[in-house]
Amino acid sequence: MRLTVEDIGKSFPGVTALDGVSFEIRPGEIHALMGENGAGKSTLIKIITGLYRPDRGRLLVDGVPADFHSPRDAIAAGISAVHQERNLIPRFTVGENILLERLPRRHGLVDYGRVHREARRFLDMIDPSIDTRTEVRRLSVAQMQIVEIAKALSLEAGVLLLDEPTASITGHEADALFAVLRRLKAEGKAIVFVSHKLEEVTAISDRVTVLRDGKVAAAGEPIASMSRGRIVSAMIGREERVAEIGERDLRDRTAVLEARGVATALGHRDIGFTLRKGEILGLYGLVGAGRTELARALIGDVRITAGEVRVNGRPVAIASVPEAIRRHRIGYISEDRKAEGLILAHPVRSNVAITVWRRIASALGLVGRGAERRIVEPLVRKLDLKTPSIEQGVGKLSGGNQQKVSIAKWLAAGVEILIIDEPTVGIDIKTKTAIHELIAEITRDGVSVLLISSDMPEMITLADRILVMRDFALVGEIENSRRYEPMSRRIMSFIHQGAEGAAENEPNGPEAAHG
Amino acid sequence: MTVADANEAPARRGAFLAESGNLIGLAAIVLIFWVVLTSLRPGFISNFNLFTLSRSLAIDIVIGFSTMVVLATGGMNLAIGSIGVCAVMAAGFLMQGLGLPPLVAFAAALALGAALGWLNGFAIVRSGVNSFIITLASASLYLGAMLILSKAVTFNELPAAVADFGKLRFGGFVSPLLIIALAIGAALIVLFRFTALGREILAAGANPRAAELSGVPVGRVVIIAHTLSGALAGAAGLMLVARLGAAMPSIGQDWLLPSFLAPVLGGTLLSGGAVSVIGTMLGALLVTTIRSGLLVMQVGNFWLQLFLGVILLAAVMLDRYRGKVAERRSLGRR
Amino acid sequence: SDNKIALIPGGPHPYFAPWEQAAADAQKDFGIAAVDFKVPSEWKLNLQTELVESLVTQGYTAFGIFPGDAVGINSTVEELEGAGIPAAALAGCAQDPTKMQFCLGTDVYNSAYLGTKALIEAMGGKGKIVHLAGLLVDPNTKLRMDAVEKAVGETNGAVSIVQHITDTDAQEAADQKINALLGAQKDQIDGLISTAYIPSVVAAKSLRNLGDKRIKLVGIDDDPIVLDAIKDGFAAGTMAQNPYGQGYVGAYVLDLLAGGGCTVKADAPWIQTPQTAHFIDSGTLLISAANIASYKDDLKKITSDIQSSFKDKYLDCK
Amino acid sequence: MTLGQRLIANEWSAIAVAIVIGVVGLAATSPAFLTEFNLYVMMRSFCVVLVVAFAQMLTLAVGQLNLSIGALGGLVAIAIGGMMEVLGFPIAVALPIGLAIGALGGLINGLLTVRTGINGFIITLATASAFTGINLGITESIPFYNLPSAFVAFGTARLSAFPMLLIPPVIVALLLALFLARTVPGRQLLAVGGNPHAAQLSGVHMNGIVVLAHTLSGLLAAVGAILAVAQLGSAQPTIGQDWLIMSFAAPIIGGAALTGGHVSVAATALAVVLIVLIQNGMVLAQVDPYWVQFLLGALILAAVGLNRLRAVRAGEA
Ligand SMILES: Nc1ncnc2c1ncn2[C@@H]1O[C@H](COP(=O)(O)OP(=O)(O)OP(=O)(O)O)[C@@H](O)[C@H]1O
Ligand SMILES: Nc1ncnc2c1ncn2[C@@H]1O[C@H](COP(=O)(O)OP(=O)(O)OP(=O)(O)O)[C@@H](O)[C@H]1O
Ligand SMILES: O[C@@H]1[C@@H](O)[C@@H](O)CO[C@H]1O
Ligand SMILES: [Mg+2]
Ligand SMILES: [Mg+2]
């Protein structure tokens, strides 16, 4: 099957996700789709699978125009997909999830024997150890991802679209997946593969298309002709320019936040670190390492079961987020801007001033618009926030400007410690640099930042020191030299060796690494 | 471009127009009804009818407010009728049974309403169970407790001042109850527009996670909203006591529909985070007008329910449509 | 006259069905511009008062009202009086102090008392009884409970009341409560006194289903099912009321009052009841196997007696 | 898992235990409890409530609420009453039309919900008012009394303690269990409730399924109405007026999630048994009827509290 996408355009309120994208997948090829976060990869896949309707452009299947109104139509046309988000029914069994929309039946009733037999067949291609009779909600994240892949395979479709299928599975399972993909390719299937992992992409794909800001930056180039540097510059549009932090020595600064032997209700063990005044302390790890959960524990949102946390030298027991903010001046910027960071329907003014309402309220509890404006407007100027007015609904701003709003509210709140989780996900490269510079600047003003990021260059650009987390434990702590190659190698070695490896490297455990 | 004063004015005007567009539309519908009804039945604007209308309107407005403040948090309160009647019976008992003066009894009854609302909020926040279920259960619980304690006996020997108050008229047809309802409305406008608490309620309703992570004590705010809802339900009940001159156990059992009609017609979102106080008042006015209008027109009072249902449907669908058009237009501008 | 009179029951209820005919007859017989039977869509106070208010707006000049809520109706009646519109309580009374001109109805206390007496007699003077009562908010219910207790009290312990079961004057509730009662306690019960319309019908049906003639039943009102039960021995009797007469005479008197020509006398031979000092009995009698064929004529006679003497006895007319 | 743990993990185990305790307690303290007629009365009052609970359960399954079940039930009740009494339709014609009216009402709810995207709560609040309005407008609140005797007789027929009226609800329960567990639309219905987005991405016709759930809910409301009319022997316009709380109480006590995707026919049925048992126990104990209201509320709270505790124990929350 050959799938052609012609001049597709798609906008969401405030964002142009795709802008004139043309793209072709041929039978018997694996076609990599690359691009930064927010480049439009997932949007393109959702259009091909009938989940979104394009604003313009068209779709051709084997040269014939196709008009999909829903995923049903795409499935019927022989297109199947693994989407980036998890899409399983928690209380259904693995088998049922795999065959959900076409459960086999006998005498009109679902034939569960066949459900499990058939599901088994596809699951076996990747991981025979998963029981098809288990309810999905009992699986690990990686297992769920495998079920998603098996589900897509089970359609035996002519076109298979995989949106970051390897993000949360292990190398072993990824290898099994690649073997299957190669076989399907040999059978003449057309496969689209989205991944941020350059090594994977070069290893498995035949051609690569790069999207940048919703436009095609490299169109179906043979993989052999693309060097790593060419792919990266296609993705970001130029040589990487990074924010300059400059050398700084913060070793004799006072400690503002310390953890000693902290364990949490979610399974963190023996977490220990020190954040100093004005420092950016990086917290690196693969997705699912437990960093976000640690941040939540630090702000009183997850229960700490053992150990001690100190703020400005005094032991604290933070029971709630408001307490973290008001009493201890700790703020947290969520990795999930839309769900947890912002109130999309409310204006910029409210989103920024929310942290200070109580402070600026008069004795009667009244908050004046003028008072809000006096706080919000200077911040908007300082952060170069692009918005028609502070009355604009935040949902209508671009991702980068939304992120600036989340930062602005903490500047307004006057926090001393800011935990920033994945600050630049879905943010374009230019804004990304701006946000990096902003983070650096606030630390110069004396704010201390705990920076969670899965973006290695970002981490190496920004952090003064880097903690490495794996499986809910810290496995390493490194002084950042801000030199990319050696730093990334050291970080990855901590991640791959895990706690044991790290212990061998640093006989006295993570704490001793820095000393 | 960054914030520039030149840009701010039109944008703010835009937001204002969107909100007032709904209100003006609602007011226009009400006006049309009044013109038509008055020309067909001149008695519609007789002092007698205006007075009785202003009294029912007052009560419908406060019932609507009671639901509105919980809708603001994205929750519901199905127990307002039960809370209302508990406050009513408490006031009756305090005045007739214990001989307390009306003001004291009313204050205590309001406090009881607030306490029952607080209990709802507390149960919701503590258990993490949906407010629909909690208040469904507590509605039955409160009503049951009231019936058990009161044996459903009406208190009908209240101090004359109570009924006299209900009968007062200003300017020939304005009930003081309406003035109270408007005063409550003004207080709620101040709450939601100008106080930290009100803003926090809306933030918690629009996105509880984000609000929590921004330092809003969401649990406490939700509890406060329910407490306020309980107090307003109590207030609505007490207004009925003044109107009827008696405290009876049958009050409140048909509040569910009007309590949702007024705020929803007025543009309050069910999903939380946005309220319109004036909209709720206009919504209540529309409902009261239609109800009285249909009766006066002898459309047959048995068909009234049908019309109310259809009007609610039409109104929410219209609102939906308006929202879509507005969205499309704002996209087009880009 | 050019009066417009409305007869308004507490809500939809079969008891009031004869009011419709009574209204039509009164309009014709007394030459009134309009006598209309207007039913609130549900048995709820606010629906009743809203209906009354809208009828005022439509120019009605007098109201005959069954106070579904004996106290709650008074504020509306007071407003009617303020607007110069007379109202009378029909079938049941409003609680004094009230601006109702008078109350024409069954002497429910007496009726329930006599009914219970008849039941006790049918039971042979001893045993246990259950009282099935109407809506608690119905002004008559409390009186009936007191009356039942009085009759039982007079047996000096030979008869006892197991329970008053209230709020049985709606079909579903009656069905559920009465069957549950019979299921759980039929062997401990010797008699049922019903003082509301629907439980009388349901009890008669249930006893017939059970085939039980041991438990004696005295009901109220003359629904065909109850009358059949009397004929077949499943019920000992039922207390007749006079809804037609209430509507007919009520409309007649309201017409006189609304014209402004007449006012009610302060010193007429009103009956004093626990609810009001201005009561007139519309007729109370027990229907049993003996008079089942003739009771209708008795009621007609009572009606015409009340009507013909009303003006002289109770009104001052110019 | 040990047997004990498995029992704790099971939604209906707590209800079953409560029922056993209740039955044993009542039987021991009240000789009337196990009499044939009392059992008959209990089973008979079980019928309508069960079907009504199922009607709500189906909308809960897709994560929606249906506030119009009672109103629709009332409308169907007077419709079949009117058809049989006024129009003289035979039972075999009137009942199917009644069922069709119920399904149509549900269909309207469903279509309005998916077409407008407005919360089902508001839609069904509005249609409830409309359905009640039609009911009152047609009947002026006057019941239809003269129903075919065969139909009325069915409402009271019994084989010793077993009421014939129980046959349709039992059939409905079995069909519903089969439908949800073993048919494709049934599974899809739960899938949509469990994760609408996922179901849609899998090619499940989401809107169609939501409409289906509402339609079936309306159909079951009609079944409830027919049973209620047979039970009462007359078609009362007030039928359905007090179904609301029962309709939610039983499925929720039976562990249904308000967010959708999880309901249980067996647990809901057991919850109805428990409710009926409590009501009967209160009659036996001659408890003030006002306690019914109170206890029902308390029961719901206890059930959700317990469920919550169980979920926390099982690490699901
Ligand atoms: N439903 C939506 N509503 C509004 N904006 C959206 C929506 N979906 C995507 N976007 C926006 O469209 C742009 C493209 O997003 P898309 O998810 O396609 O990126 P992506 O290339 O898949 O990124 P990633 O690598 O992070 O998955 C982003 O700016 C995103 O915020
Ligand atoms: N107790 C737990 N049991 C199972 N899974 C858990 C538990 N706690 C968290 N998780 C899952 O493990 C993952 C790790 O959580 P967390 O978000 O903290 O990781 P992270 O290092 O911040 O990675 P990410 O980049 O995904 O945010 C999440 O997907 C979360 O759903
Ligand atoms: O018999 C009573 C009447 O007296 C009236 O109360 C209406 O309801 C009936 O049951
Ligand atoms: Mg993506
Ligand atoms: Mg994270």
TrEMBL record, chain A:
Respond yes or no to whether keyword Plastid is given for this record. Answer: no
Q: Which family does it belong to?
A: Belongs to the ABC transporter superfamily.
The protein's matches in InterPro entries, at most eight in alphabetical order, are given as:
AAA+_ATPase, ABC_carbohydrate_import_ATPase, ABC_transporter-like_ATP-bd, ABC_transporter-like_CS, P-loop_NTPase
Which key words are in the record? ATP-binding, Cell membrane, Membrane, Nucleotide-binding, Repeat, Sugar transport, Translocase, Transport
Say where the protein is mainly found: membrane
The cellular component terms of Gene Ontology attached to this UniProt record, alphabetical and capped at eight, are: plasma membrane
Q: How does it sit in the membrane?
A: Peripheral membrane protein
| Presence of the UniProt keyword NAD in the record | no
Instruction: Provide the GO MF annotations for this entry.
Output: ATP binding; ATP hydrolysis activity
Q: Where in the cell is it found?
A: Cell membrane
Organism, as annotated: Prosthecomicrobium pneumaticum
Q: Where is the ABC transporter domain?
A: 3-238, 250-496
Source taxon at top rank: Bacteria
What is the protein name for this chain? Ribose transport system ATP-binding protein
Gene3D superfamilies this protein is in?
Answer: P-loop containing nucleotide triphosphate hydrolases (3.40.50.300)
TrEMBL record, chain B:
Q: Which GO terms describe its cellular component?
A: plasma membrane
* Record key words, sorted: Cell membrane, Membrane, Transmembrane, Transmembrane helix
InterPro entries, per the entry:
ABC_transp_permease
Instruction: Using the UniProt record, give the first listed, main subcellular location.
Output: membrane
Q: Which Gene Ontology MF annotations are present?
A: transmembrane transporter activity
A family per Pfam: BPD_transp_2
Residue ranges annotated as transmembrane are: 20-40, 52-72, 103-125, 131-149, 170-192, 223-244, 256-282, 302-321
What topology does the record note for this protein and the membrane?
A: Multi-pass membrane protein
Q: Where in the cell is it found?
A: Cell membrane
Do the record's keywords include Transmembrane helix? yes
- Per its UniProt record, what PANTHER family does this chain match? ABC TRANSPORTER PERMEASE PROTEIN YPHD-RELATED-RELATED (PTHR32196), RIBOSE IMPORT PERMEASE PROTEIN RBSC (PTHR32196:SF72)
Any idea what this protein is called?
Answer: Ribose transport system permease protein
According to its UniProt entry, this protein's organism is Prosthecomicrobium pneumaticum
Automatic annotation (TrEMBL), chain D:
Quote the InterPro entries the UniProt record gives: ABC_transp_permease (IPR001851)
Keywords, comma-separated and alphabetical: Cell membrane, Membrane, Transmembrane, Transmembrane helix
Which CDD domains has this protein been placed in? TM_PBP1_transp_AraH_like (cd06579)
Key word Membrane present in the record?
yes
| Matches recorded under Pfam families | BPD_transp_2
**Where would you find this protein in the cell?**
Cell membrane
Provide the primary localization: membrane
Q: Which GO terms fall under molecular function for this chain's record?
A: transmembrane transporter activity
Recorded topology in the membrane: Multi-pass membrane protein
Q: Where are the transmembrane segments?
A: 12-34, 41-61, 67-84, 91-112, 118-138, 159-181, 209-233, 245-278, 290-309
Q: What do the Gene Ontology cellular component annotations say? A: plasma membrane
Q: What is this protein called?
A: Ribose transport system permease protein
Species whose genome carries this gene: Prosthecomicrobium pneumaticum
